[in-house]
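Attaching the record inline, Q. Sequence:
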Amino acid sequence: MTTVQINLPDQLAQEAKQAGLLSEAALEKLLREQLQARRQDAFFAALARMEQVTEPPAMSPEEVAEEIRAMREERRARTAG
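Structure, as predicted:
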């Protein structure tokens, strides 16, 4: 277990204490919720960045077949040489 000491303005500390927010359980819950919220924010930010990436157009079946044919020709040329 780690001990953490924080400095708060007196007014805020009193209000938080009266609201029960300074208990170990309450602080743990608040921190876990904040960590989860930050992970979610990071996830959605990554999704937004991914949406901005332009993907190359999908290849037609004919283009795929042509790429495979060219790759096989290159492979044959390397093994024959």
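The two ends are 67 Å apart (CA to CA). Residues 10-80 form one domain.

More tomorrow.
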